[in-house]
UniProtKB/TrEMBL annotation:
Keyword flag Nucleotide-binding: no
SMART domains xrefs: PHB
Protein name: Membrane protein
Keywords, ordered alphabetically: Membrane, Transmembrane, Transmembrane helix
Amino acid sequence: MVERVNSMAASSERKGSASNGYVMLVLMLALLLVPALVYIALGEGEPTLIAAIAGVVVILFILTGFFMIQPNQAVVLTLFGEYRGTVRKDGLHWVWPWFGKEKVSVRAHNIHSERVKINDLRGNPIEIACNVVWRVADTAQAVFDVDDYKEFTNIQIEAGLRTVGSRHPYDDMSDDDETTLRGSGDVVNRELIVELNERLQVAGITVDEAGLTHLAYAPEIAGAMLRRQQADAVISARRKVVIGAVGMVEDALQKLSHDGIVELDEERRAAMVSNLLVVLCGDREAQPVVNTGTLYQ
C-alpha cells in the first residue's frame, strides 16, 4: 500500500447555483426592442442614442454570463478566487459575468500507457503496459487540489503500474499457487485498480477498469528466459510421467501377486520394475526382446 503525507485540506465538490439561461436569453432579446420603442416614441435624438448605447452595454453584459453544459460535463464556478460550487445539469445557464467558469469533463477517459521496463519480484527485467478507464468523480478536487489532473493521472498510472508489477514474479513453473503476472491476470488487475484509486483519490479521480495489455521479458533476457521456461516445462512434465509410471508399476505388481499369476523374487521384481519404467518413461517406442532362457542364464 502507498503511504502519503498530505498536509493540505482536501477540497470537496458541492452544488453550484446558476440561473436559467433560456430566461436570460428571452430577456436579452426583449432588450433589443428598447431602442426601437424609444425611437418610435421620441424619434431621433439624444434619448434614442442613449437608449441604444445602454441597450448594447446591457446585452454585452448579459452575453458574458452565458455558458452551455453538455451531457456528462460540469462547470466549476469561482468568485474572486473562492469556490462557489459545481453545476452539472446540462443545458444553457447564466451567472453574473464576474464569476469564473471552468468546464470539466466527467465522461469516462481511456488511457493506454506506454511500455515501461521494470524488475519483477525475482529481479528479472520485464516490459509491461496497461489500459485504464478513469473519470472525474469530484470536480473540486480535480481543479483545485492538483495542478493538472490529466497529467497527474498519466504519471500516477505509470507509477502504480510499476508498483504492482514489482510485487509479483513474471512466471513460476512450480506447483505452488503463487500469484504471477502472467498466470494471475484477474488478481493483478484488481490490485492495479486498488493501487490507482488510492493514488488518484487526492485528485478526485475514480478508476473503473484497469488491466495489463502487454507483458514480456525485456529483449536482453528474452532468449535465456525462454530456454529456462522450456527447461522448467520439461522437468515438470518428466516429474508427472515418472510419478504416473511408478503408480502403474506398483499396480501391476500388486495385481500379479494378488491373482497368483507369477511368483517373483526380489531380483525378478527389480528387473520387472526396471523394464516397466523404461517402457513407460522412455521418449521412444520400446523394442521388445524375446528371451528364451531364464533370468539367471
